[in-house]
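Q: Predict the assembly, please.
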Amino acid sequence: MSLLTVSNLTKTFAGPNNARVQAVSDVSFTVDEGEILGVVGESGCGKTTLGQAILRLVEPDSGTVTFGGLNLVSATKSELKRSRRDIQIIFQDPFGSLNPRHKIGYVVAEPLIVHGIGNRAERNARVAELLELVGLPVDAADRFPHEFSGGQRQRIAIARALALDPRLIVADESVSALDVSIQSQILNLISELRAKLGMSIIFISHDLSVIRHISDRIAVMYLGRIVEIGPAHEIMTDPKHPYTRALLASVPRISQTREARPAVISGEPPDPANPPPGCAFSNRCPDAMPECLKVRPDLALISGHEDGVKTACHLYKS
Amino acid sequence: MLDLVLFWYSMRDVVGRYRKPDAMLIALRQRGAFLIVQDQTLLAVRDLSIQAGKTSIIEDVSLDIHAGEMVGLVGESGSGKSVTALAIMRLLAEPPMKITGGSIKFGPHEITALNNREIQALRGSEIAMIFQEPMTSLNPVFTIGQQIREMVLLHRDLTAQQANTMAAELLARVGIPSPKDALLRFPHQLSGGQRQRVMIAIALACEPKLLIADEPTTALDVTVQAQILDLIDGLRRETGMAVLLITHDLGVVSQHCDRVAVMYLGRIVETAPISDLISSPRHRYAEALMQTIPSNNTPGTRLPAIGGMVPQPANRPSGCAFHPRCLAATDQCAIEVPHLRGNAHKAACWNPVS
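A: Predicted assembly structure:
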């Protein structure tokens, strides 16, 4: 049973010279109960807009986001507020996402206050419980954000996101601003919390090695669209879409022998205000066929593969 | 004797092809002519110490770079890798920062003793540097062409016309499509990857002997990062310049560098040929850093995390600065500062990985 179903979600921004920039185009996917879906892509591919459109932090143009039987895109303000108890978000920059004038105790308790949950004593008890859950000392509640390091602040942001016992968390580049040694602590924490609390997570990152580590399923985005989606193991060991293959090949690997890498793809992603008519990747794709320049491939299951990988590529058309 | 003659013939074609002696030496070394080519130390940093105010931020850093070599300087934020690079360029913010000891020898020059005019003559022409953020390193109100020409005209005796031709050649060399048009563009009209290519073109303008690249690809996407690193590596092989690559990413180092130095809280804790560091790290910090990387672990498993965080330089722990976070720390580690020991593969650890 899917917890979240996103169908044909589209968000367009106004660009310079009256151009329309399609940040998210016709994106559909589901997130199961207790699952971590990794969303990976390069900057400008629309992954952040996707995360924000799901919570309606940006208003989608069209499409539906169904969560608990409710279409969030057409929900009223009060319905939306109620649903946000169940969907929370953690941002990339733990310096920008915590109000510097508020003590940690208030920062973590704020969702409870907004939703009118508990009295002061109950909220304080809940804050202490949450701080312990994310591995911070209880006395952190009486201190200000600037007294904490980046990794600790990200723990605070996680504690705040957990305050309302959400069923879904959108984590947008939540470990990208951290050093490797701290990044692994936070990744471990997120995995542990998921095992303990059983919430679903949409984990957005540009870092394929982080995505590979934490995700059950992976969606690869390119220029506003999902080009490949499927179980993490299948995507990482047998990528189908040429873009996924290029992305995997570009990640610098730590190895003793400098084995010949697959050729690095040339060029850069096209301007989202002026996408190519066919497949958006066709101008960089080593396997592009004449058809790819004209017709945009749809995301579809690959025939003969029962592993559940969907890809948007003419190479796999049956 | 016959062997030697044959050997000379096989090398002669290499010698004829290169105008620059450094490039020739490297090509020779790649062909196996180790005996006749003496290792040329281009840059020798010895016991460099730097303070910011009264806080010591770099301690006893020693680093050699040979002609044509690519050396990685790796560390987390606050480890002092960028400060070390800025000291080599004499670009430290003085005050509050100050070199309090040691020497930086570049060819015949002692960089710490040069006056402003002398260091200015080296900067750009002999040592060039590129930075992480190619948007802020380029001036937004001048065209790409003007910015490359400025560099060329400053260090070379050329007419404006010649400088323009050279600027277009440089852009072509770093893989900018239609370079003549690109000369007329402003930085904001280029993508991040192209801006970094322009920075590399400016850095290459005077054929420097040493290129310092400070996190050159951190702001770029991974597919573009691979292109830029390949470009830098290719240019190094072609021109024979040495590269000091500063990065937090061990993967990048392992793909491109010959040697690597790992920094922690202002000290080099381990330095080794790259394959040695990867196969058998000796310092506990280097070992832990390698183990904690997600791609070195089975997906879904618990990552071996390093506990705690990098302390502030003002609160430097006694002895080995890593000892409070180290799982193998001994009593000695808290008392005495370990020094680098070993030959090609050196580590500063009292209880190294055996």
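DSSP finds nine helices and twelve strands in chain A. Residues 180-197 of chain A form the longest helix (18 residues).
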